[in-house]
Amino acid sequence: MESMVVFHRCRSLAATDAFYIQQLGLKLWHTQPGCHIYDSGYGYLGFVESVDFELPAYSCISFNCADEAEVDALYEKFKDMKGASAPRRHPQFAVYSFFIQDPDGYTVEFQKIEKEGKQ
Fold first, then answer.
1. Predicted confidence (pLDDT) at residue 22 exceeds the cutoff of 60
2. Of 22, 52, 68, 95, which residue has the fewest beta carbons closer than 10 angstroms?
3. Domains in the chain, start-ordered, CATH in brackets?
4. How does pLDDT run across 49-97, given as a tens digit for each residue?
């Protein structure tokens, strides 16, 4: 295997491009009619435009950050976006993160996973 792509449906590729390319800074890696794939640098995220779009009951797109300072800096950049929650330590998992929503309502998380013995 050389890589992976996780696909989601979306209402509008234009709105999805505006969020993932212009706001988050991902690169558009590949396009096909009705489908865009973005490169995060560590994996691919694909969206397929769908006229019968329905938000899944649960979905979370998580981006791993280098450290807590990066989580905090991204929060300052995105704190006024829909669904923004202040960074915090997760009560169940060793994670420091915050959440926002993309144009379709998907939960997007920016996190630092805390590994044993490291921050």
1. yes
2. 52
3. 1-50 (3.10.180.10), 61-119 (3.10.180.10)
4. 999 999 999 999 999 999 999 999 999 999 999 999 999 999 999 999 9
Q: State whether residue 68 is helix, strand or coil.
A: helix
Q: What is the pTM of this model?
A: 0.90
C-alpha 114/C-alpha 117 separation (Å) is 8
Q: Are 7 and 48 in contact (CB under 8 A)?
A: yes
Residue 83, token pair as written in the block: 């669904």
3-state DSSP call for residue 74? helix
HSE-up (13 A, CA, CB side) for residue 15: 13
**Closest-CA residue to 48 (of 34, 33, 32, 66):** 34
